[in-house]
């Protein structure tokens, strides 16, 4: 029977989109769990503040500029991160953006720009690190997707298309990397309170939420917190070698129902904040 190797004691992590929301929560959560982390985003100053906080709490972190739409930026980020932390063991792709607009009303250059960031940028980054990981015969790549793949949402046509592409890319890579020791995993969060959408006008955000309700896409008013997604990432990469989480979907838990006299349930008493993906 083939011997199943263990993870090395030190597993440096690269996190894209680390300046806010899910990306920053992933960086903080993994650093707290003992992983050295490299935080990458276009907003370098915010990443540096976060890295300083991680270091103050006893973790190991470095912040570097990263634009996943640029070959040069990706190469610089990976090279500098490896020089600071060592060879890459884990990659978590969190960089992304959502523009709330009907697909049929989106100008093609704007549609393409969202695909470039959410899909092509993901491939560009992973293609830079995966060959070396495969050569070392170990590593984890976590593709942060979205439940819009399973439940497409209106006013998010470009985002829906991009995340479907990300999952298709990940599934192809799962087959391509089989037997190399590199695990490609899809993490599919449900609605999450993150920085995405924080700049949307109130009337646009309300229209998006109204459409969710209209099409039955809002079963209750709860949202995931970014730390919930970070916990899921940790669960995926903590799996012992020899086991592979290919797809993990995480949805917000509904509020507890009030016990009723007959069927044991009534309308929820609590309300939560409305947010975005």
Order of helices and strands: EHEHEHEHEHEHHE
Write out the strand line-up for the largest beta sheet, numbering strands in chain order: 3-2-1-4-5-6-7
Q: What overall geometry do the principal axes of the alpha carbons give?
A: globular
How far from one another are the termini? Answer: 44 Å
Number of helices: 7
Textual characterization of the structure:
With about 280 residues, the chain is of the alpha/beta class. About 40% of the residues lie in helices and about 15% in strands. It has seven helices and seven strands. It has helices at about 20-30, 45-55, 70-85, 110-135, 155-175, 200-215, 225-240; strands spanning about 15, 35-40, 60-65, 90-95, 140-145, 180-190, 245-250. A seven-stranded parallel β-sheet has the order 3-2-1-4-5-6-7, sandwiched between helices. β4, α4 and β5 (about 140-145) form a beta-alpha-beta unit. α1 packs parallel to α2 and α3 runs parallel beside α4. It starts with 12 loop residues before the first strand and ends in a 27-residue tail after the last strand. Mean pLDDT is about 90; it is low at about 265-275.
């Amino acid at each position: 029977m083939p011997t199943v190797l263990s993870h090395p004691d030190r597993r440096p992590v690269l996190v894209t989109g680390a300046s806010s929301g899910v990306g920053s929560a992933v960086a903080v959560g993994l650093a707290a769990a003992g992983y050295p982390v490299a935080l990458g985003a276009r907003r370098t100053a915010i990443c540096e503040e976060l890295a300083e906080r991680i270091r103050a709490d006893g973790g190991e972190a470095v912040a570097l500029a990263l634009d996943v739409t640029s070959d040069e930026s990706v190469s610089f980020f990976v090279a500098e991160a490896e020089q600071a932390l060592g060879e890459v063991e884990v990659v978590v792709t969190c960089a992304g953006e959502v523009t709330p607009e009907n697909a049929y009303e989106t100008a093609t250059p704007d549609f393409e720009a969202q695909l470039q960031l959410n899909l092509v940028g993901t491939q560009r980054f992973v293609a830079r690190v995966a060959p070396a990981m495969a050569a070392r015969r170990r590593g984890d790549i976590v593709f942060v997707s979205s439940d819009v793949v399973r439940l497409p949402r209106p006013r998010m046509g470009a985002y829906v298309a991009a995340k479907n592409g990300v999952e298709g890319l990940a599934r192809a890579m799962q087959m391509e990397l089989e037997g190399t020791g590199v695990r490609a995993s899809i993490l599919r969060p449900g609605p999450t309170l993150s920085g995405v959408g924080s700049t949307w006008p109130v009337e646009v955000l309300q229209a998006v939420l109204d459409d969710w309700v209209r099409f039955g896409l809002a079963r209750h008013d709860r949202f995931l917190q970014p730390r919930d997604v970070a916990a899921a990432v940790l669960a995926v990469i903590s799996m012992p070698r020899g086991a592979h989480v290919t797809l993990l979907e995480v949805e917000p838990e509904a509020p507890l129902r009030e016990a009723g006299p007959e069927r044991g349930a009534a309308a929820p008493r609590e309300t939560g904040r409305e947010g975005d993906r």
